[in-house]
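On clarity, I found the account of how folds are encoded harder to follow than it need be. An entry of this sort, consisting of the sequence and the corresponding backbone structure tokens, reads as follows:
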Amino acid sequence: MAQTIISVSREFGSGGHLIAEQIAKDHGLNFYDRHILDEIATANNMKVEVLEKYDEKPRNAFLSRRVGAFSNSMEEILAEMQFEHIRKKAESGESFVIVGRCAETVLSGRRGLISIFVVGDELAKISRIRDVYQLSESDAIAKIRRHDKKRKQYHNRHSSFRWGDSRFYDLCINSSKLGLERTGAALENYIRERMSQIQ
């Protein structure tokens, strides 16, 4: 089978992570999310707890500086470590599903890459986050805005296009219209068609 890499970016509360996990399971592919930090920590003899503090976060402009290509920002250092880790996985020929981490940018141009962006209706996202985290509606709204702001800043820092811009993904889909399970099924139909072309 030809190499297939599925990158899934998502709005917070859209269920994109769960959908990506199900796609990986159904296609028998390795699945990478924030646990990719475990591999990086092991490879670099570091504590994963240290890395988690800086994962997918924009650099702190007040505490970091850049000289040429070098930065002392832990957020940017970790981002580059993850990007290099992802590139090596792709170069090894491995097929996998990956959530976030600018994978659609890092692996841009690879024949087997399928990039997806999952959005959701505002009310549906609020309801989901309220239920999952046992929050009030106002706290759920604040959490969604906080997470999406960080994701947008992180992505836009490391990519040549804007986070969520539909022109730069193979497919954008609203998970609120069909629900998570049927959205996953619809995406899998698309992925199967794409995989048949990659062969």
